[in-house]
Automatic annotation (TrEMBL):
Species per Swiss-Prot/TrEMBL record: Friedmanniomyces endolithicus
GO cellular component, one term: nucleotide-excision repair complex
WD repeats: 23-64
Source organism, top-level taxon: Eukaryota
Keyword terms of this UniProt record: WD repeat
SMART domains reported in the protein's UniProt record: WD40 (SM00320)
GO-annotated biological processes: proteasome-mediated ubiquitin-dependent protein catabolic process; protein polyubiquitination; transcription-coupled nucleotide-excision repair
Transmembrane parts of this sequence: none
Database matches in InterPro entries: Rad28/ERCC8/Ckn1/ATCSA-1, WD40/YVTN_repeat-like_dom_sf, WD40_repeat_dom_sf, WD40_rpt
Pfam families in alphabetical order: WD40
Annotated spans, Disordered: 168-191
UniProt lineage: Eukaryota, Fungi, Dikarya, Ascomycota, Pezizomycotina
Name of the protein this chain belongs to: Anaphase-promoting complex subunit 4 WD40 domain-containing protein
Gene3D superfamilies according to UniProt: YVTN repeat-like/Quinoprotein amine dehydrogenase
């Protein structure tokens, strides 16, 4: 849990390295693991509400601190998702929190974004326990799209908004005779959402 040295130790030959027979990564059950695409880092999450990044070349914990926002109180599998490096300047990881998706920088551990479903969307029946809980995340290969599933049975697609999307919405509002003030407020919120998604999905500069 706090081994930032790894098997190579201080001198690269094992000096200061720890015995591995009884090593632990979490204070609770580990219910999610995933690799970076190059295989150099292993991400683990546990019911102790911690996410840890291990350098698999040395076995050391990178000691990235993701703060107190993580929620993980279920024993079911809960796997974080790492954005393909093609679409990210740095390694970015998405964490399936209870009612939102958190976006972190893997190396810094800093919280970058929170993805939430608009409150205007009807919620599921109360017969489902904790219906807003995100259960899994998946990235669509060769596309800039992430899919999330929730305990209420819904599956949602997260993707950048296109120019065509914006023009279509503006035309629909104009036809409906929406008041200028309401149109301006909606446009402001749309621009904010567009900026968030654009920041998450901008391609790596060549």
């Amino acid at each position: 849990m706090d081994d930032s040295i790894g098997i190579v130790g201080y001198d690269g030959k094992g000096l200061g390295s720890r015995r591995r027979e009884r090593g632990k990564a979490h204070n609770g059950q580990v219910n999610g693991t995933t690799w970076t695409e190059d295989g150099h880092f292993l991400v683990t999450i546990g019911t102790d509400k911690r996410m840890r990044i291990f350098d698999m070349n040395t076995g050391a914990n990178t000691m990235a601190n993701f703060g107190p926002a993580l929620e993980n109180s279920h024993n079911t599998t809960l796997t974080p998702l790492i954005m393909p490096s093609l679409y990210s300047h740095s390694r970015t990881i998405y964490y399936p929190n209870t009612s939102e998706i958190l976006c972190f920088g893997i190396q810094s551990g800093g919280l970058q974004k929170r993805l939430r479903v608009p409150q205007s969307i009807p919620r599921a029946s109360h017969t489902v326990r904790n219906p807003n809980r995100t259960t899994s995340l998946a990235w669509r290969a060769h596309h800039i799209e992430m899919y999330s599933s929730r305990a209420d049975g819904t599956i949602r697609c997260w993707r950048p908004r296109t120019v065509e999307d914006v023009e279509t919405e503006e035309a629909e509002f104009a036809e409906d005779g929406t008041a200028q003030a309401e149109t301006a407020e909606r446009k402001r919120k749309r621009d904010e959402l567009h900026q968030i998604v654009q920041d998450l999905t901008k391609r790596r500069e060549v």
